[in-house]
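Bug report

Summary: structure tokens for Thiol:disulfide interchange protein differ between web form and batch submission.
Environment: batch mode, default settings.
Steps: 1) Submit the sequence below via batch. 2) Compare with the web form result.

Sequence submitted:
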Amino acid sequence: MKLQRRSFNASLVALAAAGVPGSGHAQAAGQASPVEGKQFVRLAQPLASANADGKIEIFEFFLYTCPHCMAFDPALSAWGKTLPPDVQLRRIHVGVGAMHKLHQRLFYALESMGRLGDIHEQVFSAVQVEHLDLSSDKAIIAWAVSKGLDGAKFGAAFNSFGAQTRLGQATKLAEAYRADSVPALGVAGRFLTSPSKAGGVPQVLAVADYLIKLARTKG
């Protein structure tokens, strides 16, 4: 599926934020298993894993400008810390607009510098809480410096060929998963789910747990 400009517009990022940061996400005893075609979809063509260790890959497709992505992030981070060794969670910043591409480069620069762990949430806050102007290369680099990053090193990573390459890879991956809204979770190259499909944040994490087990059994 070719991503359309409207795919990631705020008006179409329709997700259930009401269930954010809930208590547990474990499936309740006796609760029916997630239903294919309702809580998740199966890709018509499974994707080859790029993980050299053979781990089950979970991709979160998100935007820094998406309020539901920001609300989902704490629960996703907590869930990610509980994943078993054979599962890997990766965030993928997507988007097609000029602002999205700047934020993608910011994300991939932080990732390449090993600074996502301590600065990722601060980007959400800068964009959506502080409403800072991060709409140009200069503004983003200045903001990074204000967070203690070396300006020259960040600027090199931000403008690197690697960051540009990751933009294209992110778009192709989102297309392959048919992820046309955010946040969404791509699981094991075979399944796609989201808070809107699953019915909320605790529910989507329970669905993801189920899909991880399904992936192990090749179900």
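Above is the batch result. After comparison, the two runs are identical; trailing whitespace caused the diff. Confidence is low (pLDDT under 50) at residues 1-30. The chain is about 45% helix and 10% strand.
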